[in-house]
Amino acid sequence: MIVFEQVTKIFDGRTVINTLDLHIAKGKITVLIGASGSGKSTTLKMVNRLIEHDSGRILFAGEETRSFKIEDLRRRMGYAIQSTGLFPHWTVAQNIATVPQLLNWDKQRIRQRVDELLTMLNLEPTEYRERYPHQLSGGQQQRIGVARAMAADPEILLMDEPFGALDPVTRSVLQDEVRRIHELSGKTILLVTHDIDEALTMADHLVLMDKGQIVQQGHPAHILAHPANDFVREFIGRSDLGVKMLSLQTVSERTRFGGSDAPIHLAIADNASLKEALSDFVAHEVNVLPVMNEHKQIIGELHFSDLLRAA
Ligand SMILES: Nc1ncnc2c1ncn2[C@@H]1O[C@H](COP(=O)(O)OP(=O)(O)OP(=O)(O)O)[C@@H](O)[C@H]1O
């Protein structure tokens, strides 16, 4: 979907992106992670040409981004950022409709799309459509930022620390929502974060950057199991590696299907992570948890020993 070939960016005589080769696959969530100043945001902003690269090529759908008119390029790419950039004097509906308005969609279609997005992001349209950004919580504002980025159904979503500055609970709810939307829509997402747990839970493809170059990339589980060097090892945090691995797998992957005699009030959802299961085992001091599906039916059980196999 997006290909970087030997891309370099120099600011004030300093090379901040250095002959970068990167492939952002269609339909996947690619996450750029690295320390502050490693060049993540610059890489993301070169995709929609908020920053122009100095050399090399960046291709979008097979063509150089430079061959597009900049407005056409940006309309095909949603962009969500930490500070949301919502227009304060516009209602939620107007904010979400920014790009559809530019594309001259008719009123009815815009309204339908706004309501659909609000519903998708768990905000009741009748309650939120006419509010102004200052009448929303930080987490709600970020949801609107995401809704606006998705409004005209762009081919790729660029997200720069979209959940930054949120408390851990809201952050995790929004991460789940974006993952769910991704699963429903199959949208290509490029996400920048400096939070390793966010990166591990969100990424199909994780790209670890340092000093404008890629240090290692691949599936999170692969990087956790086979860090390329000490830098990577240190970055992902060796100490709770096992727990991080558990966070990448779901209960259903280790469920012993069938009935269960374990106390039903301890049932864990089959789509919960094994890390959550670990927490339940410890909190309830049990060795076996019943597992339920989305309809709250018991479908089997998870044994504590099965976690060892997963890790
Ligand atoms: N417009 C600019 N002018 C000069 N230098 C810049 C500019 N934008 C970024 N830089 C520099 O380029 C380097 C990479 O910045 P970038 O914002 O891409 O890093 P980052 O990995 O996203 O960091 P953070 O996590 O802190 O946002 C930094 O050293 C930064 O100071």
From TrEMBL:
InterPro entries recorded: AAA+_ATPase, ABC_transporter-like_ATP-bd, ABC_transporter-like_CS, CBS_dom, CBS_dom_sf, P-loop_NTPase
One Pfam family hit: ABC_tran
Residues in CBS domain copies: 259-311
Keywords: ATP-binding, CBS domain, Cell inner membrane, Cell membrane, Membrane, Nucleotide-binding, Transport
A molecular-function term among this protein's GO annotations: ATP hydrolysis activity
Signal peptide: none
GO BP annotations, alphabetical order: quaternary ammonium group transport
Stretches assigned to the ABC transporter domain: 2-236
Family statement drawn from the similarity comment of this UniProt entry: Belongs to the ABC transporter superfamily.
PANTHER family found in the cross-reference section: GLYCINE BETAINE UPTAKE SYSTEM ATP-BINDING PROTEIN YEHX, OSMOPROTECTANT IMPORT ATP-BINDING PROTEIN OSMV
Listed name of the protein: ABC transporter ATP-binding protein
Species this protein is from: Formosimonas limnophila
